[in-house]
Amino acid sequence: MFSYKINEETELRLLEIRHAEALFALIDQSRTYLRNWLPWVDFTETVSDSKHYIDGTLKQFSSNNGFQAGIWYKGKLVGVIGLHSINWRNKSTSIGYWLGEQYQGNGLMTTACKAIIDYCFRELKLNRIEIRVATENLKSQAIPKKLGFQKEGCLRSVEWLYDKYVDHYVFGLTKEEYHL
After folding, report:
1. Which of 22, 24, 31, 32 has the fewest CB atoms lying closer than 10 Å?
2. pLDDT per position as a tens digit, 59-93
3. Residue 4, strand partner residues
C-alpha cells in the first residue's frame, strides 16, 4: 500500500478499511468545525459510513485515478489528503485536504501538501496541480499561498454547503513553477 514518510513524526498512508474507526472518531471530534467547509460531514454518521468511503477511495487508487491518504502524526490519524482524480491526458490533478481541528496551526497540512506536490511532480510526472478553497476559508487559503501556487480566479456559487452556495478560489501550480 501507498506510504510516504514525511519526517520522523509524520507520514502519509493510504486509507484502509481497518482505519474506519479512527477516521470516524476524528471526523466526529471535529464535526462542528469541519461542517463549516465540507459538504459530506452530515453524511458521515457511523463507522460504516467511513468504511464505505474508504472502500471507494481504494477503488479510486486501484483504477489509477488518484488516492486518499491518512495523515499520521506521532502514530495517530489527524487528517486526510489526496487527489480528487487525475487527468492523465493533460497531466493534471487537484488536491483536497482536511485536518482535525485540534491538530491545526502546527504546519502539518502545509508539510503534507508539499509531500503530495513532490510526489505528483516527481513520481507521477504530472504538470499541473490545483487547490480549490472556499473564499471564506482563510486558514486553508494560506496553504497554497505558502507553497507558491498562483491564485487564478474565483468560481462563483460552485459548491452547495448545507444551506447556501459558496464561492471557491482556484489556486494553480505547474511543474515549471515549482522548485523541487
Report:
1. 32
2. 999 999 999 999 999 999 999 999 999 999 999 99
3. 12
* CA–CA separation, 72 and 10 (whole Å): 6
CA 11, 41, 142 angle in degrees (round to 5)?
Answer: 55
Q: How far apart are CA 174 and CA 162, in angstroms?
A: 33
Q: Which three cell numbers stand for residue 135?
A: 473564499
Domain spans of the chain? 3-126
Give the sheet arrangement for strand 150-160, strand by strand: 3-5, 10-14, 68-73, 76-87, 92-99, 128-134, 165-174, 150-160
DSSP assigned state of 102: G
C-alpha cell at 105: 496551526
> Is the model's pLDDT at 1 over the cut of 60?
no
Q: Which three cell numbers stand for residue 147?
A: 507553497
**pLDDT score of 3:** 82
| Fold exhibited by the domain 3-126 | Aminopeptidase (3.40.630)
